[in-house]
Amino acid sequence: MEEVHRSGCPINLTLEVLGDRWSLIVIRDIMFGNRRHFRELLQNSEEGIASNILADRLKRLVERGMLTREDDPSHKQKAIYSLTEMSIRLVPIFAEMGAWGRRFLPVSEELSIRAQLLEEGGRPLWEDFMQELRVLHLHAPRDPDKPSVFDRLRAAYLEVVARNRAAAEAAE
Amino acid sequence: MEEVHRSGCPINLTLEVLGDRWSLIVIRDIMFGNRRHFRELLQNSEEGIASNILADRLKRLVERGMLTREDDPSHKQKAIYSLTEMSIRLVPIFAEMGAWGRRFLPVSEELSIRAQLLEEGGRPLWEDFMQELRVLHLHAPRDPDKPSVFDRLRAAYLEVVARNRAAAEAAE
DNA sequence: TAAAACCAGTTGCATTTAGCAAGCAGTTGA
DNA sequence: TCAACTGCTTGCTAAATGCAACTGGTTTTA
């Protein structure tokens, strides 16, 4: 429990919570990949997180109010991790980081198509997405008329994956 | 030289560059505090960075294209560190991180007034500020009619400092 | 009903990174 | 001539990271 801060600067305090190489990765996978269980986060990890690091980060993020942990009623050993309002509000930061990464770093098409949509959709799309995350993670009531941003991001990603796979097979 | 990446995800790649507890602090001090020399960064550091860490981060950030290092013509031992287009474009990320930190973390008034102005000014202000940073760091031509965002942020900060100092003295 | 697979982590150990305090050689201004 | 200043470096300890194997229990499958 780190209760002493280096300074009261908002950038610094944000870095004290999120300034390491794994915390935002874990939140990203819960947020954009809808991974809610330990094994899902571990085995589908694009970056190959180690189980002890994952356990440590989940614990820390729960302690700091970024995630909640509940028992899964369908399985005595399963735990469900959910976003909180605090982590849902990271969407604009993710969007800006994604846009910056796409501009300056060697991103892959598959893994950046969602960042592209988020960038192009701008703040109105971010707000819609955050509202959906509240439905998914905070049990907020859902507006049935709104098309799902989550589904749109997922569909765009799967389309790129399928297209690239088809192209790879055609090239063989 | 870390040339192998954990994944091509833009969030991950951004974290590989900036995902530690000091890199963004150093860039923040150069950007918002206009600290251009090693000792300035070391001695005015709000968070108390150690000299070896600062040296290491400056070196890494230069290697990765986030900063440039030039000799100061006025002093044979002085080095001038400058932002690059890549780091100037972090302004929206800083703005979103500042807004998030202000909302959820125990920020101090003095150190968050600039984040507040940046949040309230929105993207048009960020663009103006980035253009000013280009003038300061990339020797871009300056538009003499534009009022300086940098000066406005600095004035607001100094005003809060002065106000709080006066209040503290009055309370004695 | 017994084996296999799955569940959220732990444990032990080696490597890497962070952090502190002191020091360094060269430069500058008084 | 000397004190203050320049950008770092060194030696050391503590903490974080990373890998591989393992744990005690639960659920599914043959």
Question: Could you walk me through the main structural features you see in this protein, from its secondary elements to its overall organization?
Answer:
The structure is a homodimer of 172-residue chains. By secondary structure, chain A is mainly α. Chain A has 2 domains: 10-83, Arc Repressor Mutant, subunit A (Orthogonal Bundle), CATH 1.10.10; 85-171, no CATH class. Helices cover 63% and strands 6% of the residues of chain A. Chain A contains 8 helices and 2 strands. A two-stranded antiparallel sheet of chain A has the order 1-2. In chain A, β1 and β2 form a beta hairpin. In chain A, α6 (91-104) packs antiparallel against α7 and α7 (109-138) runs antiparallel to α8 (149-170). The termini of chain A are far apart. The mean pLDDT of chain A is 93. The A-B interface holds A 5-17, 19-21, 24-25, 28, 46-48, 86, 89-90, 92-94, 96-108, 110-112, 115 and B 5-17, 19-21, 24-25, 28, 46-48, 86, 89-90, 92-94, 96-108, 110-112, 115. Chain A binds a DNA duplex (30 and 30 nucleotides) through α3 and α4.
List the helices and strands and how they pair.
2 copies of one chain form a homodimer.
Chain A: H1 10-18, H2 23-33, H3 38-43, H4 51-63, E1 67-71, E2 79-83, H5 85-88, H6 91-104, H7 109-138, H8 149-170
Antiparallel strand pairs in A: 1-2
Helix pairs in contact in A: 6-7, 7-8
The structure holds a DNA duplex (30 and 30 nucleotides).
